[in-house]
Amino acid sequence: MIHNKDNPMPRFSVLDLSPITEGSDATQSFKNTLNLAQHVERLGYKRYWLAEHHGMPGIASAATSVLVGHVAAGTSTIRVGAGGIMLPNHSPLVIAEQFGTLESLFPGRIDLGLGRAPGSDQITAHALRRNLASDSDAFPQDVMELIDYFSAEPQGHVQAVPGTGLNVPIWILGSSLFGAQLAAALGLPYAFASHFAPAQMLQAIEIYRNTFRPSQQLAKPHVMLGFNVFAADTDEEAHLIASSMQQAFINLRSGRPTKLPPPIAGFLNHIGGAERAMLNQVLSCSAIGSEQKILDEIKAFIAKTEADELMITSQIFDHAARLKSYEITAGVYDRL
């Protein structure tokens, strides 16, 4: 269990894409999501975030705010939020009302992470939007508008009810330097998607920390980093359960997204050099192995990045193995 009383190490949180596995459906995914949330709450993780993706056969968390409400209703202490809402898909007022509603239902437990990507392909992105002219270029203005809806004295003529005057912490998510600059300028906490797009991680952290301007929400920079963990009793078993995510990534990058496939023993031996190089690059912020290996990898990652918080994601086919992975990771936290 994660005990944080005297532990100066970054807190651990959870990112869940509510994976739909081969042979299963969204109904089962949502049962698994709630079960995992209750499990990690008992283990002492700080937050449980769900991500907005659309048109993806293997990801069930499209209606993110609905699922946030479901998880918050089935838990009692863990913070629950969006990691994130892809703001170009939505009117800022609608998101303010949705998260104002969530904060009113579950006071002091709701987070709102915002991203500027569509979380889908271009055709799906167009299908999502009422105004096809809206795009990521409007993202900073949309974020400012959303912040205003939550303020005690909104500057605009429109009120978010519920929303006005509620304390819903807003985070900026990103996988490039743009999000780092925006989070720093607005004085907001910053979450970097290093679990699948690590290329600009260190540069983004440096920009964010060096240019951060304190705000009403945040006095000093706060960096959360995505990190993949596949933990099991043995290294061999951990590499086996990691192969589902590896297959899914290759399928996605090849333009054929699929449900999360069952693991394949020795999977890395069955793929070509180009595919292996791609996996090494996109999944470089990962730890695969037994508890000691996970401990060593996480310790090195924290030393390199000085992260304030780690967002642990574990896309594992077998639900019991996924629960076990988060349990082992909680044990790693206490050893840190």
What characteristics describe this protein?
alpha/beta, single chain, TIM Barrel, eight-stranded parallel β-barrel, 11 helices, 9 strands, 43% helix, 336 residues
Description of the molecule:
- With 336 residues, the chain is α/β, with parallel strands linked by helices.
- The chain has eleven helices and nine strands.
- Helix 1 packs parallel to helix 11 (319-335), helix 3 runs parallel beside helix 5 (139-150) and helix 10 (291-305) crosses helix 11 (319-335).
- It has helices at residues 26-43, 64-73, 92-105, 122-128, 139-150, 177-186, 201-211, 235-253, 273-282, 291-305, 319-335; strands at 11-16, 47-50, 79-86, 110-115, 170-174, 190-192, 223-231, 286-289, 309-313.
- The chain has one domain (11-236, 284-335): Luciferase-like domain (TIM Barrel, Alpha-Beta Barrel), CATH 3.20.20.
- Strands 1-2-3-4-5-6-7-9 form an eight-stranded parallel beta barrel, surrounded by eight helices.
Q: TL;DR of this structure?
A:
With about 325 residues, the protein is of the alpha/beta class. Helix content is about 45%, strand content about 15%. The chain has one domain (about 10-235, about 285-335): TIM Barrel (Alpha-Beta Barrel), CATH 3.20.20.
Beta-strand level of the residues, as a percent range? Answer: 5-15%
According to CATH, the homologous superfamily is Luciferase-like domain
Note the gap between the termini.
12 Å
Task: Note the total helix count.
Answer: 11
Main sheet strand line-up: 1-2-3-4-5-6-7-9
Radius of gyration from the CA trace? Answer: 19 Å
Helix vs. strand class: alpha/beta
Query: What is the percent of helical residues?
Result: 40-55%
- The CATH class designation is Alpha Beta
Name the helix and strand elements from N-terminus to C-terminus, one letter apiece: EHEHEHEHHEHEHEHHEHEH
Instruction: Write down the overall mean pLDDT.
Output: 93
